[in-house]
Amino acid sequence: MMRITKVNECGAPIYGDCSQVVSKGFVSVEFQPQTDDGDDITVRNAAGDICVSVPSCKRVTGIDVTINFCSVDTDMFAMMTGRDPITNDQGENIGFDIGDMPCAAGFALELWTGVFSETACDGTTGKARYGYLVLPWISGGVLNDFTVENDALTFGVTGTARTGSGWGEGPYDVQDHAGGAAPLHPGLDPDMFGRMLLTTVPPPEDECGCQPLGDRQHSGGEHGEDDGEHHGAPGGGEGEDALPIAA
What span, in angstroms and rounded, lies between the C-alpha atoms of 65 and 192? Predict the structure, then answer.
């Protein structure tokens, strides 16, 4: 399961009536860390022997994230690319434009996976465990290559995960803490790109279209009080918003 949450220019969640989308309509998510190799320092003495040798220290400058879709929720696409969906005269989201994507567009990515090992169930509670990943600030999305042919049509979006987010503990209950479901504990350090962990808190249910995000979100699809401000892309949240990709 995947959840996309709209974030602002500081990498903090945007609360409003159209701020998150949950979907299972993806094929894969690929991660490619980008590194700065730095400079080796080598000094030789008058005899030509090395007297100082300091190897460079590689640093991760970002993580390229490529999401390959098998169906497209137009509200999700809007959050990831900064492009509003195209609506018909019924107010239904029916597509999206293809063009340059604003660099200011940002979103948080959360993923849940099943755990297939001896740790698949919590030994104390007997609950199923899930793998959970959050990258709270991805920006600079670009549309990948795609081909229209007599076959299933898939395409992807690539963005870059960055540090400096204001995600903190996050707006959702995703982690076991003090006998119940709780936000990230401790909160995510802004110097980190993201976090991976095991949890017995189940992923949210798949829902077409954008959903509200109040001051506090709880697991299981319950929503907190809406602050009444619309920050996200316009859209309905009905089943028609998801576009099956087939040629």
Answer: 15
